């Protein structure tokens, strides 16, 4: 009984200390503004308003554009520059990593120094592949394949939908990162309201 009482007192003291430390932390949180590392979360409706139907289908529903289409021909004609996410403006690839693979979709052998690309396992459609998405907004970009024998420094092929890319020439200004979206702002507002209640 004495042991249980001592244990209860100890746990109560720890709880008070932790709660006191939480209250001692500054109550001003980082505002919900865009930064290079902020995750963009938007409602389906917000994405539909900002993107063309094809961009939405490819990036938000993991669609695939048809090979050798008009967007692919435009991609082939683009010179030196950088490729950004059409959804949020994060840097994804540069023309230095671009190569002609003959597959009918834009191909890159590596992601750019911005490290805006993430890879994850995709077992959809009865296939085992590696999906490529934007780190900042989770837009579906395409897939990456390895060991196909291309004469590139990495022997990897990032097979990317042109509809997911925004090209900016080397002499042009890079696009601004897009806003976080109402869903992210709402979550931040709820979190702030909850913190106010705890005061």
Q: What's the story with the biggest beta sheet?
A: 5 strands, antiparallel
Distance between the termini: 35 Å
Oligomer state of the chains in this structure: single chain
Helix-residue proportion: 25-40%
Q: Look at the helices and sheets and give the structural class.
A: alpha+beta
Order of helices and strands: HHHHEEEEEEEEH
CATH superfamily of the domain at 44-182, by name, is: Peptide methionine sulfoxide reductase
Could you tell me the number of beta strands?
8
| Total count of helical runs of at least 4 residues | 5
Q: What is the CATH class name of the domain at 44-182?
A: Mainly Beta
Overall shape:
globular
| Major β-sheet strand ordering | 3-7-6-5-4
CATH fold call of the domain at 44-182? Metal Binding Protein, Guanine Nucleotide Exchange Factor, Chain A
Compute the CA-based radius of gyration. Answer: 23 Å
Measured by DSSP, the beta-strand proportion falls in 15-25%
Low-confidence stretches: 2-36
What CATH architecture of the domain at 44-182 would you give? Beta Complex
């Amino acid at each position: 009984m004495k042991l249980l009482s001592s244990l209860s007192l100890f746990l109560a003291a720890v709880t008070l200390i932790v709660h006191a430390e939480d209250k001692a932390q500054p109550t001003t949180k980082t505002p919900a503004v865009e930064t290079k590392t902020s995750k963009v979360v938007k409602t389906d409706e917000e994405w539909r308003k900002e993107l063309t139907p094809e961009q939405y289908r490819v990036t938000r529903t993991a669609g695939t554009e048809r090979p050798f289409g008009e967007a692919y021909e435009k991609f082939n004609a683009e010179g030196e520059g950088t490729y950004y996410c059409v959804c949020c403006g994060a840097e994804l690839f540069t023309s230095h990593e671009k190569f002609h693979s003959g597959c009918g979709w834009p191909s890159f052998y590596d992601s750019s120094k911005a490290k805006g690309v993430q890879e994850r396992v995709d077992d959809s459609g009865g296939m085992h592949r590696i999906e490529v998405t934007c780190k900042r907004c989770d837009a579906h970009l395409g897939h990456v394949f390895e060991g196909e024998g291309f004469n590139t420094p990495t022997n990897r092929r990032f097979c990317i939908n042109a509809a997911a890319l925004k090209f900016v020439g080397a002499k042009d200004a890079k696009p601004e990162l897009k806003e976080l979206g109402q869903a992210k702002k709402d979550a931040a507002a709820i979190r702030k309201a909850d913190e106010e209640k705890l005061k």
